[in-house]
Amino acid sequence: MAVVDSQNKVQNDIDIDGKLTIMTLGSHCSLQVLKGAKDEGFETLLVCDEKRVDMYKRFKFIDHLISVKSFNEITNADFQTDLITRFNPILIPHGTLISTLDMAALENIKIPIFGNKWILRWESDRVLKQQLMNESDMHSPIQLESKHEIDGLCIVKLHGAAGGKGYFLVTNRKEFEDQARLLIESKTIRSEEDLFIQKYANGVPVYLQYFYSPINNELELLGIDRRYETDIDAIGRIPSKYQLSATIEPSYTVVGNIPIVLRESLLPEVYSMGERFVNASRKLVPPGIPGPFCIEGVYDNNANFTAFEFSARIVAGTNLYISGSPYSDLLYDVPMSMGRRIALEINKAKDLSKIELVTT
Ligand code: AMP
């Protein structure tokens, strides 16, 4: 039976007494998510591009593999009904789901989604994103209202979760217009309005991987990473005497992740920032942020943190910690990946008949 939640939005059918299947799309962090689900005793289901079936078949913890020509097939109502009837699934959202589907299509998916699917719109829309970061009292870079305000180093971003793809640096209006024209010509964007200009925050990048449990009412820090980005991380490999760095236009496309542990003295503010984010999301986007999220930013030379982004779901940087991280090891006696932590929460919610606290 459909349930209406506090926002008057219809929640999806789920048979909580039946056997649940953990489902995700074959990309991003799907291996980690399904391995974690299997470790917690769930059946697993992967919806995957037909070209990747052979690769995913190598992993025995994937019980069911459904191949599609395009991930957009998941928006088809008959396809969803079939999956619901056969598997009683909970869908774990990740970056690929967000970058593939438009938000209305994602919100209309009938399969129960782990976490708060309404907050994913706040991640994708930069204006909403900034509102949530302000409400969380995060120190974040100044957002420029227009290209006429560009004065000094700025980073220009596209909307959505594209892993830093298409970002560029500018120091004045002309550089902005030149780069924007290239993106319009390549049909990456429709107009300059699709771009978002932020002051460049100087420092070393750090990505904080959290999990908030509405069942325990507790915030956990489960891992920390930084991204390995081409070709901004390649430029430092060219000795300055070759002066190539002046001619290479840096890009920020993520190709991998590198583990980090922070100085312990920085952790109190890390937890406090995470708590503020949990409270702000509960206030602005009920039911808040059940499950994983990530706050992304840089530490400057005074070890002060500037947050330039958040992800309101599992991030691919958690793939580093399939066998647990230095932080999850302090909390759990078994290797606790983010994928496994999600499955553990679903198990607890099911046992307590509180599945509505962790799905939308
Ligand atoms: P994002 O997709 O927003 O996490 O950003 C991708 C990459 O762009 C980050 O990992 C940083 O290297 C860089 N970046 C994003 N925003 C800023 C900023 N305001 N200042 C400096 N670097 C940034």
Overview of the molecule:
This is 5-formaminoimidazole-4-carboxamide-1-(beta)-D-ribofuranosyl 5'-monophosphate synthetase. Catalyzes the ATP- and formate-dependent formylation of 5-aminoimidazole-4-carboxamide-1-beta-d-ribofuranosyl 5'-monophosphate (AICAR) to 5-formaminoimidazole-4-carboxamide-1-beta-d-ribofuranosyl 5'-monophosphate (FAICAR) in the absence of folates. 5-amino-1-(5-phospho-beta-D-ribosyl)imidazole-4-carboxamide binds at residues 28, 96, 257. There is one protein chain. With 360 residues, this protein is of the alpha+beta class. It folds into three domains: 3-124, 3-Layer(aba) Sandwich (Rossmann fold), CATH 3.40.50; 126-137 and 202-348, ATP-grasp fold, B domain (D-amino Acid Aminotransferase, Chain A, domain 1, 2-Layer Sandwich); 143-199, Dna Ligase, domain 1 (2-Layer Sandwich). The protein contains twelve helices and 13 strands. It has a five-stranded antiparallel β-sheet. A four-stranded parallel β-sheet has the order 3-2-1-4. It has a four-stranded antiparallel β-sheet with strand order 5-8-6-7, covered by helices on one side. A hairpin with a 5-residue loop joins strand 12 and strand 13 (305-311). The longest helix has 18 residues, at 267-284. The protein is globular, with a radius of gyration of 21 Å. The site of adenosine monophosphate has 14 residues, from strand 10 and strand 13.
Question: Could you list some keywords that capture this structure?
Answer:
360 residues; alpha+beta; Rossmann fold; D-amino Acid Aminotransferase, Chain A, domain 1; Dna Ligase, domain 1; five-stranded antiparallel beta sheet; four-stranded parallel beta sheet; disordered N terminus; binds adenosine monophosphate
